[in-house]
Amino acid sequence: MFKTNRTHYEKRSQVFKALAHPARLFMVEELASGERCVCELTAMLGLDTSTVSKHLSVLKNAGVVSDEKRGLMVYYSIKMTCVLGFFSCVQKSLDEDVRQQFSTLSA
Question: What is the pTM of this model?
Answer without folding.
Answer: 0.86
